[in-house]
Backbone:
C-alpha cells in the first residue's frame, strides 16, 4: 500500500523512508548519510536536497521512481 504514495519535497527524510524504505540507498549515494539521526526527523527532502547541492524536484522524481 505504501508504494502507492507519492513522495513530495515537504516530507521529512524520516517520513519518506518510512513510506519507501528502498530509497535509503539512493539517498546515501547522494551524500545523505544522516538517515537515522535527529536531523532526518525534522529536515524535509527539499531542505536536504538544497544542503547537498541537488535539485529538489529532480531528487523527488528519482525517489518516486524507486520500486
Residues:
Amino acid at each position: 500500500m505504501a508504494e502507492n504514495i507519492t513522495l513530495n519535497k515537504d516530507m521529512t527524510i524520516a517520513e519518506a523512508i518510512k513510506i519507501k524504505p528502498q530509497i535509503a540507498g539512493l539517498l546515501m549515494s547522494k551524500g545523505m548519510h544522516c538517515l537515522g539521526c535527529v536531523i532526518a526527523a525534522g529536515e524535509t527532502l527539499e531542505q536536504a536536497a538544497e544542503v547537498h547541492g541537488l535539485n529538489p524536484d529532480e531528487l523527488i522524481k528519482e525517489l518516486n521512481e524507486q520500486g
About this structure: The CA atoms of residues 27 and 33 lie 7 Å apart. The helical segments are 13-19, 24-29, 38-42, 45-51, 56-65. The chain has one domain: 2-65. The mean pLDDT is 89.
